């Protein structure tokens, strides 16, 4: 199969298992973001893909070839790490040409490739500038161009944008995605920033405790989270315990909610409902009744916190779509059953 395949990959450091039985298919030309909290094993997984660490067990295949034990320099990879590791005493052009120079590519070919890459990263005409005179975003682009100079089979990036300020970072996310699409290169990015992952990825891989909890498209992850960890980690959500009453009808906090999807025969289930799917109504007109405890007006959106039987539910709406409510006011809370997701764990 064309692309990257991880089969039952395990990494142990002494008795500690940092990566536990990871299976993943990354089809050729796709963009994958590995996302998860600090210490979940994403860098360790990337390092094994890069050949910087050896798996304790399992296999890594690239375009059908078993590369588990192939040294890094023979894997045909482009890599960018947070530190960038540009050579400060060299010019932009010399930095980008470096991997070609050590492969002894002819001078003409080096120059042609550097010019091509410079125009791709919107830095045409910068070849002779010292990298020390570039801005953070420009350095970032040079590091990306250098990694792509050898036309690698696989492009690996570890937190590549985390040193940039928020605005530049968002702009670079779009640039990186557009560049990847143009080149059609299989790309894996490690990030702890879910917005970054949602912006760039075809597939978001959510990890926790060394395991993949879900691997799916950004919208699938958001709309159909596999478990409560994913639901809570990606975006905001309300995790609600639903219980069956004596007649098997779903209830939430002791109040019946018609149409709520409890699995057949289940006594209880955790349900995720996104704040934008919670609608406030007049008291008594929603499935649940509660009292407003806090309103966060962010200008473009308003978050309303409602206490329902001692539990908190958050509703998000745009200012125009929200009924006027004030702290302390009783409200109804409508849950639309078909957007409630019953979670696995
Ligand atoms: P972060 O976002 O903080 O970089 P991460 O998800 O990339 O986190 P890893 O760096 O892969 O996490 O680390 C996973 C776990 O393995 C951590 O608990 C870490 O302490 C441990 N670990 C990583 N490298 C080693 C090592 N060389 N020796 C021992 N333990 C290690």
Tell me what you see in this structure.
This is Spermidine/putrescine transport system ATP-binding protein. Residues 4-234 form the ABC transporter domain. Belongs to the ABC transporter superfamily. Keywords: ATP-binding, Nucleotide-binding, Transport. This protein folds into 2 domains: 3-231, Rossmann fold, CATH 3.40.50.300; 237-342, Beta Barrel (OB fold (Dihydrolipoamide Acetyltransferase, E2P)). Helices cover 24% and strands 34% of the residues. The chain contains 8 helices and 20 strands. Helix 2 packs across helix 3. The model has no long low-confidence stretch (mean pLDDT 90). Adenosine-5'-triphosphate binds next to strand 2 and helix 1. Adenosine-5'-triphosphate (ATP) binds at residues 13, 16, 18, 36, 38-44, 192.
Features:
OB fold (Dihydrolipoamide Acetyltransferase, E2P); 345 residues; five-stranded antiparallel beta sheet; 2 domains; ATP-binding; NA-bd_OB-fold; alpha+beta; Rossmann fold
Q: What is the strand and helix layout of this fold?
A:
Elements: E1 3-13, E2 16-27, E3 31-35, H1 42-50, E4 57-62, E5 65-66, E6 77-81, H2 92-102, H3 107-120, H4 136-148, E7 154-158, H5 166-183, E8 186-191, H6 194-200, E9 203-208, E10 211-216, H7 218-223, H8 228-233, E11 238-244, E12 250-252, E13 255-256, E14 268-273, E15 278-281, E16 288-297, E17 302-308, E18 311-317, E19 330-335, E20 341-342
Parallel strand pairs: 3-8, 3-9, 6-7, 7-8
Antiparallel strand pairs: 1-2, 1-4, 4-5, 9-10, 11-12, 11-14, 12-13, 14-20, 15-19, 16-17, 16-19, 17-18
Helix pairs in contact: 2-3, 2-4, 3-4
Bound molecules: adenosine-5'-triphosphate.
């Amino acid at each position: 199969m064309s692309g990257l395949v991880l089969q039952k990959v395990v990494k142990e450091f002494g008795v500690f298992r940092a990566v536990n039985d990871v299976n993943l298919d990354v089809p050729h030309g796709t963009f994958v973001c590995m996302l998860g909290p600090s210490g979940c094993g994403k860098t360790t997984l990337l390092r094994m893909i890069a050949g910087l660490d050896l798996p304790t067990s399992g296999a890594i295949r690239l375009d059908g070839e078993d590369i588990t034990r192939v040294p890094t320099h023979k894997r045909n990879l482009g890599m960018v790490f947070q530190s960038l590791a540009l050579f400060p005493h060299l010019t932009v052009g010399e930095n980008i040409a470096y991997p070609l120079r050590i492969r002894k590519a002819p001078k003409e070919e080096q120059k042609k490739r550097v010019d091509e890459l410079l125009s791709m990263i919107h830095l045409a005409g910068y070849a002779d500038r010292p990298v020390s005179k570039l801005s953070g975003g420009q350095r970032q682009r040079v590091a990306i161009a250098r990694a792509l100079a050898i036309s690698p089979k696989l492009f690996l990036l570890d937190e590549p944008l985390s040193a940039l300020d928020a605005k530049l970072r968002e702009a670079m996310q779009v640039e990186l995605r557009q560049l990847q699409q143009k080149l059609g290169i299989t790309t894996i990015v490690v990030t702890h920033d879910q917005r970054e992952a949602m912006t760039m990825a075809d597939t978001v891989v959510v990890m926790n405790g060394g395991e993949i909890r879900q691997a799916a498209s950004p919208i699938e992850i958001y709309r159909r989270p596999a478990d409560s960890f994913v639901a809570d980690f990606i975006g905001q959500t309300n995790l609600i315990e639903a219980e069956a009453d004596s007649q098997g009808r779903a209830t939430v906090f002791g109040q019946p909610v018609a149409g709520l999807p409890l699995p057949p025969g289940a006594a209880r289930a955790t349900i995720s409902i996104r704040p934008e799917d919670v609608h406030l109504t007049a008291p008594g007109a929603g499935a649940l009744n509660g009292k407003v405890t806090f309103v966060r007006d962010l200008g473009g959106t308003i978050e309303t916190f409602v206490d329902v039987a001692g539990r908190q539910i958050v509703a998000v709406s745009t200012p125009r779509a929200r009924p006027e409510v004030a702290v302390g006011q009783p409200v109804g809370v409508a849950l639309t059953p078909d957007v409630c997701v019953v979670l696995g764990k």
